[in-house]
Design goal:
single chain, mainly alpha, 13 helices
Length: 264
Amino acid sequence: MINIGQYIETLINWMMIHFSTFFDALNLGIGSFINGFQHILFGIPFYLTIAAMVLLAWAKAGRGVAVFTLLGLLLIYGMGFWEATMQTLALVLSSTCLALIVGVPIGVWTANSNRAEKVIHPILDLMQTMPAVLFFGLGVVPGVFATIIFAMPPVIRLTGLGIRQVPKNVVEASRSFGATRWQLLYKVQLPLALPTILTGVNQTIMMSLSMVVIAAMIAAGGLGEIVLKGITQMKIGLGFEGGIAVVILAIILDRITQGMARRK
């Protein structure tokens, strides 16, 4: 019998012993980053947050989405899930920001290196969430890491795809006018690839929201915890209400990011 799990367990134990300081520092840094998002969202009165979301939806996605945003957020507040929604929004925003910080440069790398693409794409296919729990324990930080690992592949793939789809004649024209490698990237390739990259951002946000319930299983809190309670405690109404709140938040973020991509 091939016992792969034994070797994986040995490797993880070795990493936890020799890199414990690194993981503790990473835990502290990511935790502070998430807490910053939560403090901002909790510190703003709910009516100002709703007004800001409605204005953003109107500007990026139109009047219909703005009306839905207003009614949806008022319904969430009326159901008493506002604090949980802000926790989920902080989790999604922090996970998305970190996924973009890491994922976009990797996507650029894969677009400019066939060898990197061949190595990284199988890794994207194999990304899993359990190691985050082993290295960071339970709580919001492992929930964020689990979400990042699950949600990062779309932005890497679509960033690489967008840059590869930039017309070759535009790239050659830029080089003929003396553009350096960095000027070509920041002034030509990234702006032209931006709609595709924003589609990747949209998919990353949606996949982050899809991890809400799973992240709640490792004590990440938010709306996922409400849904999880409804499932485990057979409170069908509570689970349904939590699910409705997740769907409303997902639709709002999806329409806003889609509107941004279309405008770009």
